[in-house]
Amino acid sequence: MAENDLLAQSFETHRAHLRSVAYRMLGSLTEADDAVQESWLHLSRADTSGVGNLRGWLTTVVSRVCLDLLRSRKSRREDQFDPFVPDPIVTLESGTDPEHEALLADSVGLALLVVLETLQPDERLAFVLHDVFAVPFDEIATMVGKTPAAARQLASRARRRVQGGTPAPDIDLAGQRRVVDAFFAAAREGNFDALLTVLDPDVILRSDGGDARPQTTVEVHGARAVAERALMFASLDPYVRPALINGAAGVVVAPHGRPFSVMGFTVAGGRIVAIDALADPERLAQLDLAVMDERAEQ
Q1: What is the CA radius of gyration of the chain?
Q2: I want to staple 205 with a disulfide (CB 3.0 to 4.6 A). Which of 106, 124, 178, 275 is the partner?
């Protein structure tokens, strides 16, 4: 087998890991795939004869690529105040998808990704690499151009932001589904009090409609305000399809088979504490929603 073929084969054994790193770093499936491809280009051009740990070397490469993308993105978005909902991963509640399982290993809920979007690029890298993938701080320090102690502080600041912004979700998936179903049932029946029962008093709704649907781009705080918003869209109830969104109970709203939004729910203490909805038609078109076609055929 040619040397380049052996290298490509070795790279493929690490692709799922690299995509997982990039997705957590970027919150974008398309950009994650681009970052992984860029890491392959680095590998194909490099002399790796002295590399003893190819997985670690590639993790460093893809992390540097992601850091550059995050820094560029930060400068583009610094004047934007609308909520940004990262790309969701949609799967059926029955059955498994090995590729999606690899992406979601170690838990990466949509609400967590939203909080990660608020971090500075160096903070996000330090948190993701250390807290999720156990990369030592001395290696992280080299990537961000700081001392190991400074890298540790970056991760600590990020950890406090994450812990303060994302309540630990209930682990019982069936329980999550019962709460989400109760939410839609109450909206369908126009039962405002029932909506308040399933919503945490401090619930937050984030909806990202992109440039095409600015009217759906909102950030709403508090149970009463979120309940009022839910009643406004009760007419969409017949088109709600249950799905797993980043491994948690959620839905795809698809009138006449055309995706209108993907909604992820964070349920903690038996109540909904966060709803994150992507309604941007351009980004919805890029998602792998074939699983919902499978459901329609069943």
Answers
A1: 20
A2: 275
End-to-end alpha carbon distance in the chain = 44
Q: Give the H/E segment covering residue 283.
A: helix 281-284
CA-to-CA distance for 271 and 175, rounded, in angstroms?
Answer: 10
Q: Which residues span the domain enclosing 205?
A: 173-297
Neighbours of 250 (CB within 10 A): 27
Among positive and negative, which fits the CA dihedral 238, 219, 180, 28?
A: positive
Give the C-alpha separation, 231 to 253, whole Å: 15
Same domain, 194 and 266: yes
Contacts of 41 (CB under 8 A, 6+ apart): none
Q: What sign results for the dihedral spanned by CA atoms 292, 190, 85, 201?
A: negative
Gap between the Cα atoms of 102 and 114, Å rounded: 20
Number of domains in the chain: 2
Question: What is the separation of C-alpha 280 from the centre of its chain, rounded to a whole number of angstroms?
Answer: 15
Locus of tokens 């839905």? 251
| Residue 291 falls inside a structural domain | yes
The number of C-alpha atoms within 13 Å of 109 and in the hemisphere containing its C-beta is 24
Residues in the chain, how many? Answer: 298
pTM given for the model: 0.87
Q: Convert the pLDDT of each residue in 87-139 to its tens digit.
A: 999 988 765 555 555 555 455 788 889 999 999 999 999 999 999 999 999 99
Helix H or strand E encompassing 187: helix 173-189
Question: What CATH number does residue 24 fall under?
Answer: 1.20.140.160
Same domain, 155 and 242: no
One domain for residues 153 and 261: no
Residues 159 and 180 in one domain: no
Q: Are 116 and 162 in contact (CB under 8 A)?
A: yes
Amino acid at 238: P
